[in-house]
Amino acid sequence: MRQFTATYKLFLQHQITKGRLTLISVMAAIAVLLGFIIGSSGGDTREGAVVLIMGYGINFGVPIIALVLASSSFGQLKEDETLVYLWLKPSSRIATVVAAWFAALSAVIPAVAIPLTITSLVASSFDFSLAGPTFLAISLAVVAYSAVFSFVGLVLKKALIWGFVYIFIWELLIGNLAPGTSKLAIKTYPTSILINMTDEDINGDLTGFFVSTPAAIITLVAITCASIALTAWRLQETEVA
Amino acid sequence: MTQQPPPPSSSQQAEAWPPKDSTIVARSLSKSFRGGLVALSELSVAIGPGVTALLGPNGAGKSTFMRLLCGLTKATTGDIWVAGGNPRKDAAVRGRIGLVPQQDGIFERQQVYDFVYLAAVLHNVDDPQSATLRALELVELNPQELTRPLGSFSKGMRQRAKIAQAIVHDPDVIVLDEPLNGLDPKQRRHMIALFHSLGEQGKTILVSSHILEEVERFGSHIVVLSKGRLAAEGDFRSIRSLMDHQPRKVKIACDKPKNVAARLIESSSIASCTLHDEETFEITTADAGAFRKEIAIACQKSDSLLSEVTPLDEDLESVFRYLVGER
Question: Which residue in B72, B74, B119 is closest to A87 by CB distance?
Fold first, then answer.
């Protein structure tokens, strides 16, 4: 446990920089501002709030912030050639990876789940029934994206660029092509949780794009576990400078 | 589970290779990179407790060898054992290694105390706090500096922090890649004394440095790499004495240098002779044994008082130059 805590603190220290904090603050401020605009526009603000959380939160905010923070866990250590100080220690690879992922979670969840939950309230004229589903869907999305982007940071140089390519090409383009391809995008699952739990009929013709809540939760957990296992394996196999 | 090096082949049995006390054993170790660059080729070497200097010009494969023996990279072919196991696969073996890497990269935002403490904790040291303070004291880092972030340190102080994190868990094998970089002369002397002291405690210390004067002070046991191959291994003075084909340079001081030099130059063992001043001259000989007899005779016949006979190329730098230049 002492080893885990020490590694976790190190990763957290690496992830939180002034630049990243600025990005998080700007994205959170934009979310709340959009929420305020939707909330004060009249009409069905509840549906508007759900669309905002889906469109801005799950499609952009969560993956981008998770990418920026989680990919830096191993990415930055590789880039500045300090990974050796962790790699050579006799600690378990899986514990190291979980510590990195946990550090990303503890930075990203407060950075996106809390502002987006507030956004959902502001946008829906304080419909508190949206708060729980929003927080759960966003948090589960963070859990999965952080695990995937930790892996990306370890295996790819210029992980940020590749991460953005993944978000925009795979998640947003291919993931929106057809019901079949949507299942290949992570965003489908937190979106499904949000839609199912809020019972909002968003564009009924998109029904085929979503899955049930239990299936969505199981899939996100499976993606997370697979990513962590893959990262631990890759960490063991990696060439360290 | 640790693995032992396989028994020596029949040709090696006569020499009992590797020696029983070897803590580092490389057998036919090769490492190639993409694009066909061969960093190490068929390296077989055994290193035991004490201080061993790893020498070689830039690109000789020193850092690659050090990375291989810490498990940081995979060998293309061949095997390496450190403390009886494979450091790439065996976490327990990694726990017995301390490394000072060559690169400057360090956790810039971490305080020096935390940097060394983290190493102690990750090595599961029983009392990491005491171990950290002890290691920092050994490298003479001022206790008042311990809360400063590493990024604000000079290169020398960072280097000392790197050494502290490498020894905090009392490892059996300590690998130091250019550990004296950035240190002032006083600190260099202190670190060399520290490495000696650790070597005398039975630890295996492998040090690479490009400053040969300092390497000479680490001790006489060297491993020389050149172009990824083993050029020589052992005591550098013994290595020099085995290099019969390499003419030796000797400085001679006596009261009648011209007369003695004139007699010596007639000898077949003397290749060249250069007068320096009224008291000294330098000769080059291909036969050191014959020269020792002839100098005595030449002085006697010249009625000259011999005051000094100093080999000029038995220092590490000359041995290194010959070894690397030969290949």
Answer: B72
